[in-house]
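Notes from the 1:1 (GR / supervisor)

We went over the backlog. Supervisor wanted to see one worked example end to end before approving the batch request, so GR pasted a single chain during the call. The sequence is below; no edits were made to it. Supervisor asked that the structure be written out right there so they could see what the output format looks like.
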Amino acid sequence: MHKARKRFGQNFLHDPGVIDRIVRAIHPSEKDNIVEIGPGQGALSFPLLTLCQHITLIELDRDLIPILERNLSPAGQFSMHNEDALKFDFSTLKTGERKMRIVGNLPYNISTPLLFHLVDYAEDIKDMYFMLQKEVVDRICAEPNTKSYGRLSVMLQYHCAVEKLFNVGPGAFNPAPKVESSIVRLLPLATKGANVNDLLMFSNVVSQCFNMRRKTIRNSLKTKLTEQQIESVGIDPVLRPENLTLQQFADLSNLASVIAGSGSA
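Structure output shown during the call:
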């Protein structure tokens, strides 16, 4: 027996119906390059492995490694990395032309930084399926003019097409978390969600706006753009960040990049 560790944010999925629904959503094929983050005791790994020739597992808790090896050996071949997914170089897992299909029941305490880490490898990823706190999934999929819309929505929707698949109640886990969970699918975009000239400036503009989300764009971006400059790209400077579309954030960042001398006119 392995007792779930709070410091690793462990809540082990055990509900067969939920596991089956996740596997059907992923719809793995024999030669897929499946990478699972935080496999726990292998509840999702086992059915995935029976449908694939091989899967790769990334698990930080070293005490789970022998449990995984014992539980999964009857199902097929797998590779194990006892490493921190936040620091892992995912580009090493691309095999030939087969892009990664990344899945995982992500610890709630690292989900946002891990998602930002993974989009750095978007060109090597086919799709991603994650169990996350429902509130986080709602933020990922939020549209402008909604309470949940924020930095996470804008940045992930720039890189990926996002879709909430279904909710999962606390009873599907052991121990049961105090929050509801959801499954989200992220499909990296070949053509990004907006025309951005300088990704660093774009990220900076989005962060600066939502760090002061109750302020108007005029006030939150006053160190980068004047009111007249904001109006020059067709945006009302008295709008708040949650009122702006992805492309409007791109337009502001492109203009700020030009003014700062770091982009092209």
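Supervisor's comment: The beta strands are 12-13, 33-37, 54-58, 77-81, 100-105, 125-133, 160-168, 173-174, 181-188.
Batch request approved.
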